[in-house]
Amino acid sequence: MISKSSYLLLLLRQRSLRYFSTLTDVLNKHINPELDSIRQAGTWKTERIITTSQSSHIKVDKSSNDLLNFCANNYLGLANNSEIIQAAKTALDQYGAGLSSVRFICGTQIIHKQLEQRIANFHQREDTILYISCFDANAGIFETLLKEQDYVISDELNHASIIDGIRLCKAKRLRYKHKDMSDLEAKLQESLKDENVIRLIATDGVFSMDGSIAPLPDIKRLAEKYNALIFVDECHATGFFGRTGRGTEEYFNMIGSIDIINSTLGKALGGAAGGYTTGSKALIDLLRQRSRPYLFSNTLPPSIVASAIKAIDLIEKDTNLPGRVLDNANYFRTEMKKLGFKILGDSHPICPVMLGDARLASQFAEEMLQRGIYVIGFSYPVVPKDRARIRVQVSGAHSKTDLKRCIDAFAEVGQQLHVIK
């Protein structure tokens, strides 16, 4: 006769075997075939391991060579700035490593409120709310603001975080063709069949894969005509775009005219992490009460808060920083076009070098790495099929010598792979 303990052990073993049998079945029939298809398509993404701080010059694992980095969002070169590092160290000593809490319980320190006010002042807004990332900020805004009867009208090339944020809300969703104002107006007209609703136009300020700039003056004109609000994601503009780094609004000389701005601390403003929404005090108050990513995520670590405050200090102190980025971007774009490369976008440091084929983009990036230039090939699903590219990101920290070395490498590889003559 089997003992009770032996019976329980046998039962647990049978359940474990069933579990592993089910898991193996899912792996073999679903997950592994999908992974194989990614490899066969030439779109497998390999993570290179950096062994230095983030900078315009880096080293990677298993190589002693110095690489020129042209694929970081480190637009101002502040990611390893000595003053920012010291500010973070000081905050660690004074405020600790973290809060182990969400904001409304016991996760708010004085520096969190200071940073929120600094960001609000920087954008000339009433108030700001911090998030652990801009992805979280985008996940929080639409669901909080919009109800079932409302409309959100989104550019078709908006960032994945905007798309996912919109999916979380119950509002009616309309999508307009990229930067197509006629199509945007048609969608706004479609929304007129409902009265007493919120109409929210959602767009990136700068589109991260194309380097193109949203036509904010035209969007503003349509918003006023159809009583719509405007939401702009400024992740690839804040701190370095516009005369003093105030973003796409400043680029078009229309600071204060956009209703809601979401942006990041994880690119030009020190490059660590963090995101935010800035706008009217009433909107920010509502987000503090209802935004789920804010209410259910730990607060931003003090060291990151302090580094962001110092980054804003540096940008406001040296208003020439954004100009250096723009000068470098214009030089790179001009010289690459002379060589015969097709470069997408506007006057922005995101410079997509169009190649079309995914395998070609991966091969091109590997050849560039052999020449000491660190760039990445982007392909589906990050960009549309047959629109693969090398996305070059120019920094204010790059010297003209750095830029020329990169351009010369592009010329050599481009001729070798028959992309240019």
Unreliable parts: none
What's the number of extended β-strand segments?
Answer: 13
Element order: H for helix, E for strand = HEEHHHEHEHEHEHEHEEHHHHEHEEEH
Radius of gyration: 24 Å
Output the structural class: alpha/beta
* Overall average residue pLDDT: 94
% residues in beta strands:
5-15%
Please give the count of helices: 15
Describe the sheet with the most strands.
Answer: 7 strands, mixed
Cross-sheet strand order for the largest sheet: 3-9-8-7-6-4-5
Question: Which range best describes the helical content: under 10%, 10-25%, 25-40%, 40-55%, 55-70% or over 70%?
Answer: 40-55%
The CA-CA distance between the termini, in Å, is 84 Å
Globally, the shape reads: globular
Can you give me a brief rundown of this structure?
The protein has 421 residues and is an alpha/beta fold.
Please give the structural blueprint.
Layout: H1 4-40, E1 57-58, E2 67-69, H2 82-95, H3 103-106, H4 110-123, E3 127-131, H5 134-145, E4 151-155, H6 160-168, E5 172-176, H7 181-191, E6 199-204, H8 216-225, E7 229-233, H9 248-251, E8 260-264, E9 275-279, H10 281-290, H11 292-295, H12 302-317, H13 321-339, E10 350-356, H14 358-370, E11 373-374, E12 377-378, E13 388-393, H15 400-416
Parallel strand pairs: 2-11, 4-5, 4-6, 6-7, 7-8
Antiparallel strand pairs: 1-2, 3-9, 8-9, 10-13, 12-13
Helix pairs in contact: 2-12, 4-12, 5-6, 5-10, 13-15
